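Appendix B, record 7
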Amino acid sequence: MGSYAREGHMLDERMIELVKNHLGLEISQNFNDFDNVDCMIYNESSADGYDLWVVTNDSRHVNICENVYYYANDLANAFEEQVRWGDQTFYIDEYVFEEAYIDDKLIEMFSEKVEDIIVNEELDITLEEINYLKEEYGFGEETEEAESTEVV
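Structure tokens (predicted):
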């Protein structure tokens, strides 16, 4: 996989990879990992056949009021909240991953963290990618303006 889809554009997959590495996130869709993660996000059915969505740290003690969602479109924000609370390993059911647009949320999180990602020396990020991100998000301009402004 290349770093760019075409000249001057970073692939979504690369942005997702960088934000996951920056935040130390691991996302599994392997059911064998279900009980070995910080947070599980999956689908259940109600007794009368409705789809329900669960975001929990303990699948054996699901709190209906706090962990169960009626709409899948709330799951991406719930995922982000779990990350903010410190969860790093996730089981996300493949169907849920697609239905909740987790990739889109990761790209949004990338945009929010891009300045930190650029300076994170532990990431495998190329100079070309850093320069692209600085230009795309306008980071170099702010620094140059600040350096050229002299306090009298």
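Remarks on this record: The two ends are 51 Å apart (CA to CA). The longest strand covers residues 39-45.
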